[in-house]
Amino acid sequence: MALAKEEARVVIWNPAAECMPLEEKRMLQLRRLQRIVEYVYHRVPFYRKAFDEHKVKPEDIRTLDDIRRLPFTKKTDLVANYPFGMWAVPLEEIVRLQSTSGTTAKPIVMGYTRNDTEMWAEAMARTYQLCGVTADDVVQNAYGYALFTGGMGFHIGAEKIGATLIPAGPGMTQRQIMLMLDLGTTVLTCTPSYALTIADTLASMNIDRSKLKLRVGIFGAEPWTEEMRRTIEEGLGLEAYDIYGFTEMCGPGVACECLYHDGLHIQDDLFYPEVVDPDTEEPLPPGEKGDLVFTSLTREGVPLIRYRTKDITSLEYEPCRCGRTTPRFRKITGRIDDMLIIRGVNVFPSQIETVILQYRELAPQYQIIVDRVKNLDTLEVQVEATEEFWAQGEEARRNLAAQVQAKLTQAIIATADITILAPRTLPRIEAGKARRVVDKRRLG
Ligand code: ADP
Ligand code: ZN
Q1: Neighbours of ion ligand 2 (CB under 5 A)
Q2: How far is the CA of 184 from the centre of ligand 1 (A)?
Q3: What count of Cα atoms within 13 Å lies in the side-chain half-sphere of residue 9?
Q4: For residue range 117-154, what is the model confidence (pLDDT) as tens digits?
Q5: What is the Cα–Cα distance from 326 to 384, expressed in whole angstroms?
Q6: What is the pLDDT of residue 12?
Q7: Residue ranges lining ligand 1, Cβ < 6 Å
Q8: Second label for 21, Cα 20 to 30 Å away, from 227, 230, 245, 369?
Q9: What is the position in ligand 1's atom list of the atom closest to the CA of 309?
Q10: How far is the CA of 321 from the centre of ligand 2 (A)?
Q11: Do 175 and 201 meet the contact criterion of CB atoms below 8 Å apart?
Q12: Which domains does the chain show, CATH number per domain?
């Protein structure tokens, strides 16, 4: 019964692309790969030099597996060739520029030809329908606009499927809530950390959740855990979908969950995925975790070959229950750059989030502080108490801190100090991505 209901909700924007038989898909990918390799070899001096150094010519790409012969592209290559060095077309053919949010490096600037913006809108139209969004929906887009790709991607995709779009942008949270109430918003799009801020504000305004018509949330641009998903779903009364993308391919729209939430479907006729061992750079078989790598198969402005995202996940090729044949990857738990090394132990912020969000007494607002004292790394997790728990007093807090500390130490195999803070002491995210880690070892 439940399954029949799910099936009835499945809508597929482009079945020809998304449900293509695998053999046909591989032939299409090979043709596109051959064309793009030839294209960059003749248009981008960076690639001609890199291919020559690797002793590979465009005509050597005879099968899809020959992609392994091609060199990788790294973010540092884009930074070194800033702003236009990697571009394949002159500025006259570019209709728009976008830039990364600069989480880990100097921002890089990508140019889009008219075909590139159309390809991106297509990827985003497929994305909305992966989440069951149709022309009947009212989409409130609270991703950042301007140079950041989030706002623009969700904007052009919503227009393509014919939904009613509210280009709210991030921030002014009480106004966001007012818009939702007044305009009957059914779909919210923003970063998961901002969704949490909206949920938090909604609770503090004492507005009954049932007054909202929200049914779907499409959240991404940063790692977030299953525990965070549940917290947001409860707080806003919607079904939350994980979307993935990055500026170097187009922006959001590279991959997204479907109604079954069983991994993220990759638009692999546009973005060819691989997972490689971060150290040996050897491709890994399906199911094995490593560095996610993408080749843009149709991009004209700034096509990238074997781009190392440094996002960690694994690939799966079994067709999905939704009917799509596009491969999927598992929810991303972090990127290689996010990994903290605490006294030699590797710790991902998502592991910490998973533990602290299990406690009802704690609010889902936290900060991780790493320092070095007398040559030893220290790890402190500051987390807010809920109003009710704070009222129980200091002894209750001390006991809970000890419990959380034990659980965390077990989960991450490194000792962490827990500090329980009063409600509403940590800053809330009003726009963009959360910055939950303060690594004092890197300062000064
Ligand atoms: P920046 O590298 O400056 O943050 P982008 O704004 O293009 O540049 O962000 C892309 C990155 O954001 C991805 O490489 C990935 O690390 C992260 N990201 C995007 N979507 C997700 C997601 N759904 N889950 C985890 N991480 C994500
Ligand atoms: Zn599916």
Answers
A1: 258, 320, 322
A2: 30
A3: 17
A4: 999 999 999 999 999 999 999 999 999 999 999 999 99
A5: 41
A6: 98
A7: 100-104, 220-223, 242-247, 309, 311, 332, 335
A8: 245
A9: 14
A10: 6
A11: no
A12: 6-21+110-336 (3.40.50.12780), 339-442 (3.30.300.30)
Q: Which two tokens stand for residue 232?
A: 């947001």
User: Which one of 244, 291, 309, 353 would you pick to mutate in the ligand 1 pocket, going by the greatest count of ligand atoms within 8 A of its CB?
Assistant: 244
Q: Which amino acid is at 158?
A: A
Query: In terms of Cα–Cα distance, which of 354, 351, 320 is closest to 334?
Result: 351
Q: Are 332 and 268 in contact (CB under 8 A)?
A: no
Using the mean position of ligand 1's atoms as its centre, give its distance from the Cα of residue 74 in Å.
Answer: 15
Q: Which of 6-15, 271-280, 290-299 is least confident?
A: 6-15
The residue written with tokens 């109430």 in the block is: 181
Residue 436 pLDDT > 80: yes
What is residue 1's predicted lDDT score, i.e. its pLDDT?
43
| Cα-to-chain-centroid distance, residue 59 | 35
How large is the angle between the packed helices 22-43 and 45-53, nearest 10 degrees? 110
- The residue whose CB lies within 8 Å of the most ligand 1 atoms, and thus the one to mutate among 193, 311, 339, 436, is 311
| pLDDT grade for 337, boundaries at 50, 70 and 90 | confident
Is-contact 252 153, C-beta < 8 A? yes
Query: Tens of pLDDT along 162-186?
Result: 999 999 999 999 999 999 999 999 9
